[in-house]
Structures are given as structure tokens and as C-alpha cells.
Write a structure and sequence with these properties.
The complex is a heterodimer of chains A (about 325) and B (about 190). Chain A has about 325 residues and is of the alpha/beta class. Chain A is about 40% helix and about 15% strand. Chain A is built from 14 helices and eleven strands. The chains are: A alpha/beta (about 325), B alpha/beta (about 190). Strand 3 of chain A pairs antiparallel with strand 7 of chain B.
Chain lengths: ~325, ~190
């Protein structure tokens, strides 16, 4: 259960008791040490704020991302644009690839598990990476249930199109949210739609009285307690990044000005003409998102961007943002 | 007194919120001209490789080195402590841009990855009575301190987690993620 205490949210259900193993692993650092708490899971996402998380498919790309100033990398076998183009079932990446990417960099490493595929998540946790993305980019493994993320020590990020979806994921234990956008399209329109939806619902939530909050919670299919706490705080209890279709420095700055805490760039970097240069430019534009002169300077001569796709040209059954419930 | 929070990347808003509770009006610092107008600066938690790269790219390493500890008090939390350190262990391949102003040796990700992040009450009388709530996230460790560096807090096993050298303060944990403003108050008095 997530509780709002003054200026902090606390999640009691995911605060494990201290095990002997946890104490032993760090020597005798006291009997009151707690590992993998809600605060540390949400906290890592807080440390990523204002930064860019980049999809990479090789250790070499991970090094390019780290050199460019990425705050984390998402280790994948195929970027979303290729998953979209090649079709078929998209699964968790080969653990050997994930470990090779982990060995190449010092920044946090994330990897994707299929929606509802809790064994892929167990495998990723066993690899000792830093975050799992329960992602609609992969083919869902369960069309009803998401992963019960409270059962894990590793933190999860999940996508959402609106506040109800975001709060359902938090109730399941997600410690970080992102917009779904429409991954692998190079088209930012869906990420904008999702970020605006979350913002406007947050504003509306704060204007409701207690009686109305019950109905609101019912309508968005989220827990009343959590809705009440979010209304009181005026913000989500976890960090919310933009993802899905971000391809240019201006796209990244647009999302930041819309109020997200940071950005994921999937296919947008390594499907472009000059990935290192574009990666650096997107990092700078994310930091200086309110400074059009800097965004103009870093946007010059970046080479070919990734080829974009009109959302309306994608068959409905291939829309990734519709996956998840 | 003008307090700045380095806002290149990381949890700078959390620091600003606590500073506001203490009555300060913090300035977000992203460019040299903003840096020039502050005399206290917090370098927040985040990724030291990212913040270091942006400090170098936007011409702030040299002005910071020239002023840090003199007319500019600097407090680094986690990534910030790494950036202050004279020596950094476990840097990224090829090394990383750093301020190198405080006589401490810091090891990055000293406890391992995110699965080893932890919380622990800390005894630190320098910051006032009663334990601090220590939040350690992929935390670094201060492995050695030079002469003239005062150790302010240790873990029960002796590991150094807070140190001060004149007007430079380093903590490997995150007071900005708690409701306790004691370390911020301490810093404003440096």
C-alpha cells in the first residue's frame, strides 16, 4: 500500500523485512538495514531525472550512450523500430547480451520483460541489473494480469496512457512510470497525448471534493486511497518519464516542457544517421529544455533522423500503446 | 547569501524543496552566468558521468575549481560527492570529467547495483542530535580522506559516508529524499 506522509510517499507492502542474507552481504552494518525499499526503488528513478535513457543493442552502443551523457541504458536485442518492421513475437533479450552491456558501462542498466511474464522478470532480477521495464513493446505474455511487482526486489518502470493506468501500475508495485507513446515510430504525437492526459487529469483531480473522488477513482479503475493521496499531493507518487516516438532534441525538450521528469529514446538514436552526435544533442536539449537558443544550436547538422511513421497508417492490431490493461 | 542547486541532471528539485522550507530562495544553475551569482552550491544526486560531461561542455569546471571551498561553499550528495573527490575509483571506461577539489578518494557504486541499495539510520552528531535517515542508492563510498578532511559520519562497520573540508561537504547518501532538513541547515552555515 502506498501512503502519503507529508512530502513523501511510502509503500509499506513492498518494504521487505531485513533478511540475514541482506545484513550478511554488507558485513555487520547493523540489524536495522533495509535493502530494496520503496524509497530506494523510487529514489533511483529520482536520480535519473532530467536525464536521457537510451535503447542499445550492443555493448558498443552502450558505450556510445554513456559517452554521450545517458543516465542509463535499456539493453535490448532489437530496437522497437525493428520489432515493428520484423513482426513476430518479441521477448526478453538474451541474458548474455544484457550481461555484456552491463559489463561495458558504469551507469544503470535496464531491460524489458513482457507484460505479465513474471519469469522473464525473475530472470532479469537474477542478472543483477538495475531496473525492469514491463513493456508493451514486447509481445504481452498475459492479456489480463500485469506482473505483481511487489514480489520483486528490483524496481519496475511501466508505461501509461493516462492517470488511471499509471495508478494501477503503481498499485501493482511499479516504482516509475513513463508515457507509452507509440514506440518505434519516430512520431512523438502519442507521447504528447499521454503526457497531456496525465497532466490534465492531475489538475482535475485536485479540484474534486471528497465525494467526487470516490466516483473518480471508480471511473479510472484506480484505488480510492491512492487517488485521495495523489489529489492531496498534487502529483504522482513516482517519477514519470516520456517514452515512445522521441527522435529529435526538440522532441525531448517538448516533452520536458510538458512536465515529464526525463526521457527514454528508443529507436530515435541508433536508427539515425549519426547516433553519437544525436545522442549528445538530445542530452543537452533535455537539460536545457527551456532554452531555445541551446536547442537550436544542438539541433544543427545532426544528419538523417530515423524514418518516421504516421500513426494512422499503422494497422490497429499493431499499435503497441493499446497493449496493457 | 544566494544558494544554487546544480540543475544539469538529477534530483535537484528535491534539494530546492528542502531549501525553500528553510526560507532560502534557491537558484537552478545550468550555465556559468548562473553559477557566478551563487555563493553556496549543491551538486545533487544523479549520474556523475552525465553531470560531469555537462559541466565540462558548458564551461563550468574551471570556474567551479577556482571558487570551490573559497568564496563558494559546495555540498555534493552521492554523484555530487564523486564529482568533488580528488580521486575517483571505478570510473567509466576512459575516465570521466570531474572537479577534483576535495581531498577524498571515492569509489563509485561501492555496494554494487540497485539490488544493494539500502536505508539505514546514521549516527552523525555533527548534524545535530538523533540519528539521520540514511538513504543509499547505488551509493559511492569515501574510501580515504586526506589531512584537513574531517569525517562527519560512518556506517557501523566504519565506512565513511560524510566528510567536510572547510567549505566543502560530501555525503554519499541523500538527505534530500527525507523530511529531515538538518544537513541542509548545516550546509547553509558553512
Amino acid at each position: 500500500m502506498v501512503e502519503y506522509l507529508g512530502n513523501q510517499f511510502r509503500c509499506s507492502r513492498s518494504r521487505p523485512q531485513v533478511s540475514d542474507a541482506a545484513v550478511g552481504a554488507l558485513g555487520n552494518r547493523g540489524e536495522v538495514m533495509e535493502k530494496s525499499t520503496w524509497t530506494t526503488r523510487v529514489g533511483l528513478a529520482q536520480m535519473l531525472k532530467g536525464g536521457v535513457i537510451m535503447d542499445v543493442v550492443t555493448p558498443e552502443q552502450a558505450r556510445i550512450a554513456e559517452e554521450a551523457g545517458a543516465v542509463a541504458v535499456m539493453a535490448l536485442e532489437r530496437v522497437p523500430a525493428d520489432i515493428r518492421a520484423q513482426g513476430g513475437v518479441a521477448r526478453m533479450s538474451d541474458p548474455e547480451l544484457i550481461l555484456a552491456i552491463k559489463a561495458a558501462v558504469t551507469i544503470p542498466v535496464m531491460a524489458k520483460a513482457r507484460i505479465g511474464h513474471f519469469v522473464e522478470a525473475q530472470v532479469l532480477e537474477a542478472l543483477g541489473i538495475d531496473y525492469i521495464d514491463e513493456s508493451e513493446v514486447l509481445t504481452p505474455a498475459d492479456e489480463e494480469h500485469h506482473i505483481n511487482k511487489h514480489k520483486f526486489k528490483i524496481p519496475f518502470v511501466c508505461g501509461c496512457k493516462n492517470i488511471g493506468e499509471g495508478l494501477r501500475r503503481i498499485t501493482e508495485g511499479a516504482a516509475m512510470l513513463r508515457t507509452k507513446g507509440e514506440a518505434g515510430t519516430g512520431n512523438v504525437v502519442e507521447a504528447v497525448r499521454h503526457a497531456r492526459a496525465v497532466n490534465s487529469e492531475l489538475r482535475r483531480l485536485q479540484s474534486l471534493d471528497e465525494d467526487e473522488l470516490f466516483v473518480y477513482a471508480k471511473n479510472i479503475q484506480a484505488s480510492y486511497e491512492l487517488v485521495k493521496q495523489v489529489a492531496a499531493a498534487g502529483r504522482l507518487p513516482v517519477v514519470n518519464f516520456a517514452a515512445g516516438g522521441i527522435a529529435t532534441p526538440a522532441d525531448a525538450a517538448l516533452m520536458m516542457q510538458l512536465g515529464v521528469d526525463g526521457v527514454f529514446v528508443g529507436s530515435g538514436i541508433f536508427k539515425s544517421g549519426d547516433p553519437a552526435k544525436r545522442a549528445r544533442a538530445i542530452v543537452e536539449a533535455t537539460t536545457h529544455f527551456n532554452d531555445p537558443e541551446i536547442i537550436a544550436r544542438v539541433s544543427k547538422s545532426l544528419g538523417e533522423p530515423m524514418v518516421g511513421i504516421e500513426i494512422s497508417k499503422i494497422p490497429a492490431e499493431q499499435l503497441m500503446a493499446q497493449r496493457g490493461w | 547569501m544566494t544558494v544554487g542547486v546544480l540543475a544539469l541532471q538529477g534530483d535537484f528539485r528535491e534539494h530546492s524543496a528542502i531549501l525553500r522550507q528553510l526560507g532560502a530562495d534557491p537558484l537552478e544553475v545550468r550555465l556559468p552566468r548562473q553559477l557566478a551569482s551563487v555563493n553556496h552550491l549543491i551538486i545533487p544526486g544523479g549520474e556523475s558521468t552525465t553531470i560531469g560531461r555537462l559541466l565540462a561542455l558548458y564551461g563550468m569546471l574551471e570556474p567551479l575549481r577556482a571558487r570551490a571551498g573559497r568564496d563558494l561553499a559546495v555540498w555534493g550528495t552521492c554523484a555530487g560527492a564523486i564529482l568533488l573527490a580528488r580521486e575517483i575509483l571505478d570510473q567509466k571506461q576512459g575516465g570521466q570529467p570531474t572537479l577534483s577539489v576535495m581531498d577524498i578518494t571515492v569509489r563509485r557504486n561501492a555496494y554494487g547495483g540497485q539490488l544493494n541499495s539500502f536505508e539505514l539510520p546514521i549516527d552523525a552528531p555533527a548534524f545535530g542530535e538523533g540519528p539521520l535517515h540514511g538513504v543509499f542508492i547505488r551509493a559511492p563510498l569515501i574510501e580515504a580522506v586526506g589531512q584537513g578532511v574531517e569525517v562527519l559520519a560512518r556506517l557501523p562497520d566504519g565506512a565513511i559516508i560524510a566528510a567536510r573540508q572547510g567549505r566543502l561537504l560530501a555525503t554519499t547518501f541523500h538527505p534530500e529524499l527525507t523530511a529531515d532538513a538538518r544537513v541542509h541547515r548545516y550546509f547553509l552555515e558553512l
